[in-house]
Amino acid sequence: METESKDSPIGILTSVRQEMVAIACLLNPISLFKRNGVSYYHGEIDGIPVILTRSGMGWERAQRAVIGLIRDGSPKSLIIAGFAASLSPNIKRGEIIIPDCVQASHNLAPDSPSLIPSHPLVKAINIPNFQISKGGLITHDRIVIHASEKRAIAGAHPNCASLDMESYPMAMEAEKAKIPWIIVRGITDDFNEDMPLDFNRYIGANGETSTSLVAMAVCLRFWKIPAMIDFGKNAQQTADKIAKTVKNLILSLA
């Protein structure tokens, strides 16, 4: 990793394209470059340099992506941003979560320690004009489809209020590299809500859900169309909220 300077960028690591695009729209100017086969967006948010990329869903992709971002982008700090599911009846769709710790689920990395966001980023979480919930986050091995499984996971991890598939390995590698990190997650599905489809069935080799496969699945289950429209609308609104929170967080660090 290159020697850090005051002009070193803030790294932003998302999981999927929808999250990344919402944040990329805030960069001005913006340029795209590739290193080691990975695409990175480099630009500024109100004059602050940032470097942005995405990993795809899942532990291994997340770990590869954060190692690559640290190696190729030399960020001075890392913001891990994207979607999450609620593990609490008090955390609703569309809310923003900034977890006070992240854990790995037992089936992924048993006995792994909780990781706590690093100073100086934690001092910046009181962002005006946003109601931000806290609590722990658990990184799981797949998208959780049924509310009954969310309840089971919440029971096994009572201090966790949300769930994702990537944050723990990202934070773990940032810790190894001694890079400060923080997580910003937006809730796409409620604690007592089933997902409209089993999206695990439609994840492609790039770690993204295949739009064509999802469309075919919905056509075969036409009664799911209203729920899918509602889910898609909420996901886009949540992605926009994540991007605004990331921007405000970056500005608070200036």
Principal-axes shape call = globular
Output the CATH topology. Rossmann fold
Mean pLDDT: 90
Strand content: 15-25%
Explain the overall architecture.
This protein is α/β, with parallel strands linked by helices. It has a single domain (10-194, 236-253), classed as Rossmann fold. Helix content is 32%, strand content 24%. It is built from 6 helices and 11 strands. Helix 1 crosses helix 6. The two termini are 23 Å apart. The model has no long low-confidence stretch (mean pLDDT 90).
Spell out the key features of this protein:
single chain; 254 residues; alpha/beta; Rossmann fold; eleven-stranded mixed beta sheet; 6 helices
Set down the secondary structure blueprint.
Elements: E1 10-14, H1 17-24, E2 30-35, E3 38-45, E4 48-54, H2 59-73, E5 77-86, E6 96-97, E7 101-104, E8 132-133, E9 136-139, H3 147-156, E10 160-164, H4 167-176, E11 181-189, H5 211-220, H6 225-253
Parallel strand pairs: 1-4, 1-5, 5-11, 6-8, 7-9, 9-10
Antiparallel strand pairs: 2-3, 3-4, 5-10, 6-11
Helix pairs in contact: 1-6, 2-4
Brief overview:
The protein has 254 residues and is of the alpha/beta class.
